[in-house]
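>> received
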Amino acid sequence: MKVLVVDDSRNDRKIIRYNFEWHGCQVVEASNGKKGLELAAAERPDLIISDCLMPVMDGFQFLHEIKKFQDLRSIPFIFYSAVYTGSREAEMATSLGARAFLVKPMRPEELWEEVGRLLAAEPAEPAEEQKPWREEEFLRNYSQLVAGKLEEMVRELSETNESLLRLNGELERRVVERTSQLEAANRELDMFSYSISHDLRAPLRHLEGFSQALIEEYAAKLNHTGKEYLERLRKSALRLTDMIDALLELSRHSRGKLVKESVDLSSLAREVAAQLARSQPERKVSFEVAEGMMVRGDARLLKVVLEQLIGNAWKFTEPRGDEALVEVFATELDGRPACAVRDNGVGFEMGYADKLFSPFQRLHAQNEFPGRGIGLAIARRIITRHGGKIETKAELGKGATFTFAV
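>> returned
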């Protein structure tokens, strides 16, 4: 059996083709009614399966034209549609001479069995005795059908639009509500930060101050162990104060409005490098900064990122002496333009890389490389606020590279 499949969906045609070819049929395809009419005249198929809604010439026009040809009108014609699925469409299809009106989607085996059942059954009226519609009759009925379908689609679109408007209103209400809650949470965070910076610092200052006073004024009455305990107490108080300051700094960079503008990272990197060189003029570090690294972001915060990354590179290259090298260059990260800071310092094992961006996580002892352990956490927080990403690659003893995109 030769089957002509007419459908503007390539996937639907393919599914029907594979299904009927598997059952031993020969299948030819057309993407619209006009091409289907040409193929029907050339191939003389034993069955036509056609979609309704198609460009150039739809299924109803295709069937109407088929019935004008004496040698084609007897070919069984079956509609298989997902859009025109109402009773009016089915009635018109039957009136035009279609054998059946099937609704998509059907399982391949189900479609094959249904087509077989329809072909085995006697048509209600022999095709050769059924006269084709006059042109004006077809146009009148076809226009009414299309107009009805358009009215139905307009109603559906109108209902969908009303639903979307209601949903949009609900979303706006929720956004206002969540924004209000966020603003309240930020106010509470500000109050908490104020409490930390003032209320908690005061007892820590007392603890550190009195510990120092005990060491200085009562040293003669304390043995070596007592002095050591007091010194540890004083250093712990200083360390806790430093950690509080670091948390406040992290909080400060996590809030506030981003002021986005065009930022020259090359210029900022050179500025940071110059500040580091002035802070330790005895060190000889080679800086190589690429030109033309432009991004859009908050210049103040992006400078903080470079201060943290270049500052780390400066610190961890100290064991290299005069061979210390820090490079800042343009690259890519996940297909996005990015900036990288690379050094030839002490590096680290990549198995510990995830810890670097958490507050107070350190891979080197404090007496080797002093620091608060908060810099990279601040850098990542700022980059995340910009909608960006930061990654690192390193090798123990061979330096590290930090790459970020915003």
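>> The radius of gyration is 39 Å.
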